[in-house]
Design goal:
3-amino-2-oxopropyl phosphate binds at residues 7, 18, 186, 207-208. The protein has a single domain, classed as Alpha-Beta Barrel (TIM Barrel). Helix content is 44%, strand content 18%. The protein has eleven helices and eight strands. Strands 1-2-3-4-5-6-7-8 form an eight-stranded parallel beta barrel, surrounded by seven helices. α2 (25-34) crosses α11, α6 packs parallel to α8 and α10 packs across α11 (219-228). The model has no long low-confidence stretch (mean pLDDT 97). Bound molecules: 1-deoxy-D-xylulose-5-phosphate and the ligand NCC(=O)COP(=O)(O)O. Residues 7, 9, 43, 45, 69, 91, 99-100, 130, 185, 207 line the site of 1-deoxy-D-xylulose-5-phosphate (DXP). 1-deoxy-D-xylulose-5-phosphate (DXP) binds next to loops.
Length: 232
């Protein structure tokens, strides 16, 4: 069974839209866990547009692992080393983007990433790198000593030609290099099927669609339905 990490960022988007204290991402995470979430994912963006520092501190107390998504900045590394989530997923960030547009360019930023990954590992945090399904990026990820990569499925979700094959080849290559393979972004009940069959896939992180479905079904039921689709 593939593990499901439920990303609760957009519960915070709804909360912040009215400057209220509800809906509470921590409460949403508890319902997601009831529905079968194996972990909770949350992205503390540098502009704090949805999740805030105090959300991460509270989410850290959940009964399941917290996958803390963050830009590879000094501020975020220091925060992560302080609160020590189970895992940190390093992602690229652009201020103007609506969501994460591509993978982290680990080739370009390898020198800077090396020391940051080391520091996170010294704090006993499992590091994953959110990258495109590109052999060069995967090779560098392995060289940097990250135990996990998360493959960006955004282009696949948008129907880009040949993307499923790229993801398949990337998962195979990563496995060969000893990396644990995760995937996520833009996944739905409709498009998750072929992703579940990626070689050696261990975890999927899914957020925006599940929180959207939760408007109709409730989070617990939305997550339950996704879980039924994650068996190979
Ligand atoms: C890194 C990734 O693909 C997403 O989980 C990320 O958190 C997306 O950012 P938003 O949640 O702000 O859309
Ligand atoms: N890392 C991907 C993630 O956490 C969820 O992405 P999305 O389902 O919100 O697009």
């Amino acid at each position: 069974m593939i593990r499901l990490g439920v990303n609760i960022d957009h519960v915070a988007t709804l909360r912040n839209a009215r400057g209220e204290f509800y809906p509470d991402p921590f409460e949403a995470a508890q319902y997601a866990i009831k529905g079968g979430a194996d972990g909770i994912t949350a992205h503390l963006r540098e502009d704090r547009r949805h999740i805030r520092d105090e959300d991460i501190i509270r989410l850290r107390r959940l009964s399941v692992p917290l996958n803390f998504e963050m830009a590879a900045t000094e501020e975020m590394v220091a925060f992560a080393c302080d609160i020590k989530p189970h895992a940190c997923c390093l992602v690229p960030e652009k201020r103007q983007e609506l969501t994460t547009e591509g993978g982290l360019d680990v080739y370009r930023f390898k020198e800077d990433l090396k020391s940051k990954i080391e520091r996170l590992k010294e704090a006993h945090i499992r590091v994953s790198l959110f990258i495109d399904p590109d052999p060069l990026q995967i090779e560098i990820a392995a060289k940097l000593g990250a135990p996990v990569i998360e493959l960006h499925t955004g282009s696949y979700a948008q129907g880009a030609g040949g993307e499923l094959e790229r993801l398949h080849n990337a998962a195979l290559f990563a496995q060969k290099l000893g990396l644990e393979v995760h995937a996520g972004h833009g996944l739905t009940y409709e498009n998750v099927g072929p992703i579940v069959s990626l070689p050696g896939l261990k975890e999927l992180n899914i957020g925006h669609f599940l929180i959207s479905q939760a408007v109709f079904l409730g989070i617990e039921e939305a997550v339950k339905r996704m879980k039924t689709l994650l068996t190979r």
